[in-house]
Structures are given as structure tokens and as C-alpha cells.
Known about the structure:
The protein is of the alpha/beta class. It has 13 helices and 17 strands.
Amino acid sequence: MGVLKTFKTGGVHPPENKLSEHQPIEVLPLPENVSIPLSQHLGVPSVPVVNKGDKVKTGQIVARGEAFISANIHSSVTGTVTKIDDVVDVSGYRKKTLIIKVEEDQWEESVDTTGTLIKDCGLTPEEIVKKVNRMGIVGMGGAAFPTHVKLTVPKGKKADYLIINGAECEPYLTSDHRLMIEKGKELMVGITIKMKALGVNKAIIGIEKNKPDAIEYLDELAEEYKGISVEPLKVKYPQGGEKQLIKALVNREVPSGKLPIEVGCIVHNVGTTYAVYEAVQKNKPLIERIVTVTGIGVERPCNLLVRIGTPVSALIEAAGGIPKDTGKVVSGGPMMGKALINLEVPVTKGTSGILVFPEATSQRITQLNCIRCAKCVSTCPMTLEPYLLGLLSDKKRYEHCEKNQIMDCVECGSCQYVCPSGRPLLDQIRVGKAKVGQMIRERSAK
């Protein structure tokens, strides 16, 4: 492969533990009930357009994203809306949620449920963006940012590159890997659709070298598509961060406080790209996703195709049940994921994995005083000073947090991972970012 590309500043190398990388995608049976949160994307929560007692079909819109940064939500099942209630989600807080009792699966008539590959897209760029918006597509790499917003290039800006994130740098997670292997042809079409919407003629798929089968397969497929190339990347966390990916692939640096479009780049996850293919070519809204269910003690690590709103308990049951020595269950990866308050939390559009950790590895080490070793500084991919940001946040000095560029933190967790004193740096910085973000919004509203 020659010299592998990567970002230059910071990063760590946690054990990969890709236990489910060779497990084909399986379809998880429908549960008895689904709980579909009205806020499962970045931005304004969606507004329900159905009421208690209404019958809904699979793929039917049930909540509208009425703001620009919001997203439509569709029913992932056929059934009856039994109530609209506050339900605990992955954040641990109660959020407005539609609860639907599942009946026989009947899809909206407009959805193409066949497996036929459709290559040609006759829509204009504007029509593509409108359809992606209508189908409720959001970023599936974790942030859940509404995709139609990313496909809308601001006036005065120009996109040069579409970068497709296939790095999947988080340990344990393999859902993107399996998607690239099993849905590579559809993925390629999805990339061409996005290229058309953005008006770019170059797309680069970045994949870490620990997925040689995906690199080889997509490289072979890319030969049929003008302007699409595949770049192997060094295995280094957080290679999948959009700013790190841009630096690695096109050697451009996104300025502090700015978005990738400032340097002519748009970054999309492979899962999002496949969802765009299904939305545009198959009229299929985002109602299901691939979720990795794994852990050292899990009986059968697997990759499951899951309907949105399915309780996490159903996924763990499909993987062999909860091990007796379980100490923690995490939604997402081990570096950036969040521990769940219970196992009835529903799968959302942004749920990439469910990790089960034994008691022995669930406990944090005893928190000690900072010894000024600077390991957190050397591993920060954003050249920040995590020890300082954590301290400032802990002392509620949020104005100083902002001055020290806390909003540039990508929350990768590298600092907390290497800290020999067990300082909860990521936790502290997340609190600080939330407070500073609130301050910025309040200033903008004046």
C-alpha cells in the first residue's frame, strides 16, 4: 500500500477489538413496540403529525422537521400509535417520543423494497437535496447532522472534494465495514448522487488499512466511476474525525471555528451515503440502520439491521443475551460512546453500536491530581490543552473555556484515554462545550 496517509497531530492507538468484522449483516425481527424519539438529530426536534390511536404504515412520515436544521421522522413499522410520551433516550434524559404497537409489516406504496440496483439518477441537484430532506436523512457516523444541510453549499462557497468516511476508527465497531463489503455497489451510486448535488467532480473514500477487503472491493468498483478514488489510511484514532480526514486525504486544514466547506470539502459517512442512495433511488426514508452489538464477553458479536425505535434489549438478546458479569452497556464506541441508563433505550438514526463491558473493565481508575505530564496535550488531534479546559470547565469559568477554543474539541476522548491520573477530561469538556454553546446562542439571539 506504500506510505499510508494520516493526520499529523496527536491521536492514539487503542486495541482494535473488531470482533464482529466477519459477521454478515443480519435482519433483526420486529419488536412488539417501537419508541421513536422526536429528537434524534442535531437541531430542532421534529413536530408530530400523528396522534394517539392513528394507524401508520412503514415509511410513513410521523413528524416533520420544520426548521432548516432539523429532520423529518418516519414510522419504522406498521401499527398503531399508542401514546406520545416522554421516554429516556441515549442521553439519559426524557424526550418526547412516539410509541407504536407493531402489527403486520406494510410499507408505503411509493417505497421500492426490491434489491434491484438503480444506477441512473435523473433528478436535478435541487431535487436531490429536497428529496434527501423529505426522507429524513441525517449523518449516521454519530453526530446525526441533517444531510440536506450538508448538501446545501452556502452562497459564495465552493466544494472541491466530497470525502467519504469509511475509516470506522472506533474500536469494536464494524457496521460501516460490513456495509462497504455488502452494499458497495449501492454506495458507489450514492456517492455519484452526492457529487451531482454538490457540483463536485472528485470524491475520495478514506478507509483504514485494517479493512483490506473493503479497500480492495471498493477500489475495484471505483474503476467504473469517474472521479471516485479509494485511499487506504493508517490505523490511528481519531482518523474518522472530519477535520483529521480532510488533513489526511487532501492536506487542507479547517480553521478554528469554521466548517469543512471553508476549505472546499464536504465529509459524509458511508452509512449516510447508502441512506442517500435508498432515499433518492428507492424512495425509502431513514427508518433502519446497521448496528454492531459486541463486547469481549458477548456470546455472539454481530451486525444487525435494526428498525429505528427498537429497544436495545432486543439487540443484546439477539447477540446471546446479557453476560452475567456485565458492568456497563454503552451506545456507540468505547471512546466517544455513552453508558446507557437502562436497556429499553431505543435505537435511533445515530446508533452505530451497542457495547457490553464486563464489570472488571467498567470501573474508572481512582481519580488523582493532575501530574502535568502533558500526555493529554500531545495526543489531542486539535492541538488543545485538555488539562486546562477540563479544569476551567470544572471551575465553571466558561468565558475562559471559550477563549481557549473549547468549541474546537471533537470529543474524541484521546485525552481521557491516556491520562495516568484518571481525570474525567472528556466529561468535563463536554459540560464546558454545552455551556459555551448556550452562551454563543444567547449572544446570537440578542
